[in-house]
Amino acid sequence: MPFLVQFFQRAPSQRPLSVCFTLICLILLTCILLSLLIGAGSVNISQSWQALIGQGTEEATFIIRELRFPRTLVALVVGMALGIAGALMQAVARNPLAEPGLLGVSAGASFAVAIALLLGASAATLAAGVAQIGALIGCFFVMAAARLQGQFKDPVRLILAGAALSSLLTALTSILLMYDQRAADEIRFWVTGSVAGRALDHLMAVMPYFVIAALLTLYVARPLASMALGEKVALGLGHNPRTIRYLVMLSVALLAGSATAIAGPIMFVGLVVPFAARALVGPDIRRTMIMCLPIGPLMIISADILTRIIAQPTEMPLGVLTAIIGAPVLMMIVRAKRLPTLA
Amino acid sequence: MSVFDSTSRSYVPAPTGHWLVAIAGYSVLIDKRAIQRNALLSVALLAISVLSLGMGTLSLAPYDVLLALLGKGDSMTQFVINELRLNRLLAGIFTGAAFSVAGCLMQTVARNRLATPGIIGIDNAAMAFAVASVVGVGVSFAPSAMALTGAATATALAFMIGGGSGTRGYRFIVAGLAIGSVSAAVSQLLLTQVHIDVANEAYPWTVGSLSGRPEEQIPVMGLITLIGVLSGLVLCYRFQLMAFSDSVITALGHTPNRLRFAAVVIAIVLTGFAVALAGPVGLVALVGPEMARAFARHKGLPLLSSAICGAIVMVLADLAGRTLFSPIEIPVGVITAIVGGPFLLWILIRKPKRSTL
User: Fold this and answer.
1) Which of B214, B345, B54, B285 lies closest to A104, judged by CA?
2) Which band of pLDDT confidence, cut at 50, 70 and 90, is reported for residue B1?
3) Is B203 near chain A, with CB under 8 Å?
4) Tens digits of per-residue pLDDT, A248-306?
């Protein structure tokens, strides 16, 4: 494969985006296929294949259509949302460690969902709006805390602030849950993060938010790229950094909030995916975000497949697996010679 | 009051505000203010303890509590105090002191006051190992030994990955954060793999709780805390040298790495046993030493005041958890998170006055 060797010898920012994108998409397609074929239950791969080409038993067809297909679709959407949210957040905080999950966005969403459950919503009809508001508050709170001190660029302080906020919100959530056994039962399966057992209705309910967030993201991509050159440059090019920052935060809250509402808090995806994307195509935020589109789902779907294989015949929570994958990446970023600032 | 060994030494006046105690060639300076403040703190701890013993579903006046503690009063009160509440109080005092001293020592070693065992993941790792032992065997097969192993593993990993505690304190902390979140994930994973009843039973413990702790572990915890605090106090004068650079420590005749090792070992042992008993109530390790520093205001390392402050925080948090939302009991770990989270934020936001420690 001399072509590939030559390709990877280039500097990341010189690699043609289309080639990278196609490569990752091919891998993603394979993973989607595998995700439809592999399961923790009794239906094995060949039976699944038969069902997939329309000649399988009734049971296998049912499992594929009603269980694995929605699950894969949810993983696809959630992966895209979390990956993009991570990339946006890192660009606006200029901090490679800024990740919605680490910064208390997921904890904010969980807290809001717990309140909603306590007030009588059931997980099935759960309004994604509540989670988004929680995510937004969590998001702004951490950014405000970090700005107050002018420590916006201090990578570690920001995530410590996030950790502090997360522990506070998690504690409040658990108090709420102690008041209500029903809410506790409903949220227990939600809180470790999973894409299993989510119906397509849930996905459809939050789709509009994803569309809005996507439009917002398209709008802020260029200004964000100019902000990477410094706020003064962005001002000179006719963008208002403050407005852009708020728009980005809104978009992050929509994406991370909706994703959390469907799949529960899944940590570290927003850290690993943009990190991988930057390693592939360099630091330009537009190129990074385009690459996050296939890499995000790739990570979640492959992690989801693993959760089915590892603890057979039961499944392992997805959030646990992403934490186990993500934490070493966090360490890797921190162990790099100097903490890279996304200037 | 100065005791001088006049035969071997010439007269050296003690610095103001200190007593010089010299016996057989060894001498220590005792800070008068430290004694005074620690006495005050101890009195406060005693008062809070008596109050805490009196509060609950059966409300008792402090006088009755004291009577019951002395073995007098009616048998009902005696039973409630001595059999039910005293154990819990003692567990709170011992674990609070242990967490807080461990926090103070780790802060000193890392020269960073954010580097408490809770934040660098030692608590969570100890918890994960302890949960593994409970879940794996079905009976609690020495969770404290497992917790200790977990604490040691996490610390070793954090040091290894962080590349030492030295000047890159922050790197050390982030490594610890990562270790902590992996450990928390592993604990969760273990809990999802067992029967729901076992998981429910272990749940309060995994967030940190003093309720229904095994009685026979409490004296052991007391002993460990006592040994930890005493050895910390004995080495206190050397530990406070760690605020200087390594070359200064070496010039003063100590080995920096050996000092660090001793401090970390004490911290690990204290944290491991405390987690095995009360779960990961790590934020006490952040709040306790900070309170001690604010209140004690004496020179050097406020180890003893940290221990007392940690105990006070733990007892107060447990009291709040028992009484505020009754009849529901909030685990002490949740209360400390609600207090400690904003506190950590405040530390991060506040302008640093002088040093990081």
Assistant:
1) B345
2) very low
3) no
4) 888 888 888 888 878 877 888 888 999 889 888 888 888 899 999 999 999 999 988 88
Highest mean pLDDT pick, A108-112, A157-161, B198-202, B216-220: B216-220
CB < 8 Å to A269, chain B: none
Rg (CA), chain B: 21
**CB nearest to A330's CB, from B174, B192, B349:** B174
Cβ separation B175–A145 shorter than 8 A: no
- Contacts of residue B337 in chain A, CB cutoff 8 Å? 167-168, 170-171
A211, with CB counted inside 10 A (0-12, 13-18, 19+), is: exposed
User: Which of A156, A157, A172, A338 to substitute to test the interface with B, most B CBs within 10 Å?
Assistant: A156
Rounded Cα distance, A76 and A299, in Å: 9
Q: What is the CATH number of domain B34-349?
A: 1.10.3470.10
E strands in chain A: none
Contact of B229 with B307, CB cutoff 8 Å: yes
- Distance separating the N- and C-terminal Cα atoms of chain B: 33
How many A/B residue pairs have CB atoms within 8 Å? 112
CA distance A26 to chain B (A): 31
Look up residue B147 and give its amino acid: A
pTM as predicted: 0.82
Contacts of A162 in chain B (CB under 8 A): none
Terminal alpha carbon distance of chain A: 35
Domains located in chain A, CATH noted: 38-64+74-335 (1.10.3470.10)
Search chain B and give the residue with CA nearest A142: B345
Query: Least CB-CB distance to A156: which of B170, B331, B350?
Result: B170
| Distance from C-alpha of B226 to C-alpha of B228, rounded to nearest angstrom | 5
A269 touches chain B (CB under 8 A): no
Rounded CA-CA distance A109/A336 in Å is 32
What is the C-alpha to C-alpha distance for residues A163 and B174, in angstroms, rounded to an integer? 11
